[in-house]
Design brief:
Blueprint (H helix, E strand, L loop, with lengths): L5 H21 L6 E3 L5 E3 H17 L4 E4 L3 E3 L5 E9 L1 H5 L6 E8 L2 E9 L4 E6 L5 E2 L2 E2 L12 E4 L7 H13 L2 E4 L4 H7 L5 E4 L4 H4 L2 H7 L3 E4 L13 E4 L2 H12 L2
Parallel strand pairs: 3-5, 11-12, 11-13
Antiparallel strand pairs: 1-2, 3-4, 5-6, 6-7, 7-8, 8-9, 9-10, 13-15, 14-15
């Protein structure tokens, strides 16, 4: 695992600051909403924030790759790739709900080594760097550990994200835990890092949806894997398990895999 440099850390923070300033200008304001080919919504706030971040990366690290939700991928062959989701939770954003976030990741050879979850309205920011403790608004945070499956609180953005065998597996997991709640998108992973919930299990995610989340959860003491128990990368299939500790993650994986 490579060491994240001071310059890369500084850029990641600057990206979050700049994108947050843009997104705040549009929040709870009249806004044109377009529909992308996959039927998901997009706004000028999404596009403007990503354009600003891409410009900053091009200026600071012109040899690094960039993979963003709105404008695709460049320099895929680079060892370093910045992965950007300017508004994770656009549906909440356009509804005026502050349960969305800006996601910024840096991957080295496909593996996330830095992640930021930034909620620009409440000014909450989680920063995870491989090998270091996750920092939330200046202080180290920790997951809730030692929770058994039967006592766990589980989150997912929506039950509609699960289809076929994934839906059956999530149904079994929902029946195995104490409480299941929906919504929050990336914000749920921040809550997990702070020890307020125990599990987030999702499906059909893209690399820009999950890359920033892994360093945040792992740096807080949690586990973050795909549904097979492997570490996530840019090549992962978009099914993830985030848990307060590795034992709970393995228990959830076993339920999801059962047939």
């Amino acid at each position: 695992m490579t060491t994240v440099t001071a310059a890369q850390r500084e850029l990641a923070t600057a990206l979050a600051d700049q994108a947050g300033a843009i997104v705040r200008r549009y929040f709870r304001k009249p806004l044109a909403i377009e529909q992308k080919a996959d039927l998901s919504p997009v706004t000028q706030a999404d596009r403007e924030a990503e354009q600003a971040m891409r410009g900053m990366i091009e200026s600071a690290f012109p040899d690094h790759g960039i993979f963003g939700e709105e404008f695709g991928r460049v320099r895929a062959e680079s060892d370093f790739t910045w992965v950007l989701d300017p508004i994770d939770g656009t549906k909440s954003f356009i509804a005026g709900l502050p349960l969305f976030g800006i996601l910024i990741a840096l991957c080295f050879k496909g593996k996330p080594v830095l992640g930021i979850i930034d909620q620009p309205v409440s000014r909450e920011r989680w920063v995870g760097i491989a090998g270091e403790a996750t920092i939330f608004n200046g202080k180290a945070v920790h997951t809730r550990t030692g929770t058994g499956l039967a006592e766990a609180t589980l989150y997912a953005t929506s039950p509609d994200m699960f289809e076929g065998e994934a839906a059956a597996g999530f149904g079994r997991l929902r029946n195995a835990v104490k409480l299941t709640r929906y919504g929050a998108d990336c914000y749920a992973y921040g809550l997990l890092a702070c020890g307020f919930i125990d599990l987030v299990v999702e499906s059909a995610l893209k690399p820009y949806d999950f890359s920033a989340l892994a360093p945040v959860v792992e740096g807080a003491g949690g586990s973050f894997t795909d549904w097979q128990g492997a570490p996530v990368s840019l090549a992962s299939d978009g099914r993830v398990i985030a848990a307060g500790d590795a034992r709970l993650g393995a228990a959830a994986q076993a339920v999801l895999a059962k047939r």
